[in-house]
Amino acid sequence: MVRCDRTWLGIDLGTQSVRAVAVDDAGALRAGASRPLESRRTVGADGSARHEQDPGAWCRAVDDVLAEVVAAVDPGSVGGLAVDGTSGTVVLVDDDGTPRSAGVMYDDARGSAHVERVREAGAAVWERLGYRVGATWALPTVLALRDEQPGGRVRHQTDVITAHLVGRDVPTDTSTALKTGYDVLDGRWPAAVLADLGLDVDALPDVVRPGQALGGVGADVAAATGLRPGTPVLAGMTDGCAAQLGAGAVRPGDWNAVLGTTLVLKGVTEHLLHDPTGTVYCHRGPQAGRWLPGGASSTGAAILAELVDPALFEEHTDALLADPPVDLPVVYPLSGTGERFPFAAPDARGFWLDGDRRRPLGELAGAVGERSAFAALAEGVAFVERLCVDHLAALGADTGGRRTITGGATRNRWWNQRRADVLSTALERPDRAEPAVGMALLARAAVDADGGEPDLVAAAAAMVHTAEVVEPRADPALGERYAAFRAALRERGWITEDTA
């Protein structure tokens, strides 16, 4: 029998808000709260995008949401808490932990000028780990930040919060440290590489596995929030990994697809995946021998809102459910320029096929009507999702486990069905999947392990529940259109026969 007398807290530091939840052992939501965060976006002298937040605001928001959540539960029932944050967000702090810089967010590109140097200095390490360091990764960002403000210790967004909760400096986790260059295979910072870049390892935090105990809630935070002093604080993960846990994708072969503005696919393997195209990289899971590979496509639901009136989405959906389309144009539904997964093509642009002729996406609705355009764009996103799965399988990943779907787009019933049909796979939609829930699940698994290895499978079985299963339907026409979709991408040189 699943216990329900304990409560687990998860905190999610997002771009626009901080969210906290209290979840019991059976996965029931006991309380939730959120507070907004403000960003400062500018352009640097070099033309790079800048995105900053106030680290003090993170701490104040965390105290506020915890106070609201804890007021709704018995503080004595709280067994532990864990925190996730945006991947690659960093800040410089003084020796006592006081921030000396703004929080530089995950999509800040001030480190662009350092990227090639970082790639060259650590080429052998990055190759062994399967990384391709990006322009907004934390390591080049740190180099640029220290050019602006020499000195200081490097900490991540989650590190600021966990230190605040415990009342002293604490280690970061392997997931959060990945984009700062941490060697997840050797379990250490690559000191020689960092020295070549002028960065002392002593300026970086110690690193532990997600779920490891960091300490207990300190007296100041206990007084501000109502938590018991000493409530266990466990090392967390990045927000993407946290969302994967919240969806219950924790066994080898399981995959979770998050479809919102963009499409993100993350799963579990028993070995590190090496992707020569650099579109997939792997986090190390909380359990030994488990890896969490994934990638993020630039395609997603955003393109639908750009080309079809969002006020008509529900009307189009009802009509498509009542009268499914027999034929649709083949569409590569990319918003803007550049694709990053399942292939890397910085100059890629979306298109649709009018017979054998490629035409711009802006001409789609006028040529076929808004309803058919809506359906073709949605189907095109499903084709990208299938290509992502094909790419992962070609890299040696097991893709035969549970497939869960989360994100705002899962509210569309027709789209869920079309994705299942395209993928020829049953899709499970969890009743509640969000990063904060994933952190509550991790806290429970870690505390139950009592210093051992967290059993995420057992925790997910108790806490994650399926709201709906969408079974695939056979449709030979989908296979034909998918083949045409792959052929069009090959003609552009974006994928090869092996990739497809």
- CATH class group of the largest domain: Alpha Beta
What's the CATH architecture of the largest domain?
A: 2-Layer Sandwich
Mean pLDDT: 95
Kindly identify the CATH topology of the largest domain: Nucleotidyltransferase, domain 5
Helix content: 25-40%
Distance between the ends = 46 Å
Q: Structural class of the helices, strands and pairings?
A: alpha+beta
Radius of gyration from CA coordinates: 23 Å
Main beta-sheet annotation:
6 strands, mixed
Give the uncertain stretches in residue-range form. Answer: none
Shape by Cα distribution: globular
The largest sheet has its strands arranged as 3-2-1-6-13-12
CATH superfamily of the largest domain: ATPase, nucleotide binding domain
How many independent structural domains? 2
Structure summary:
The protein has 500 residues and is α+β, with helices and mostly antiparallel strands. The protein has 17 helices and 23 strands.
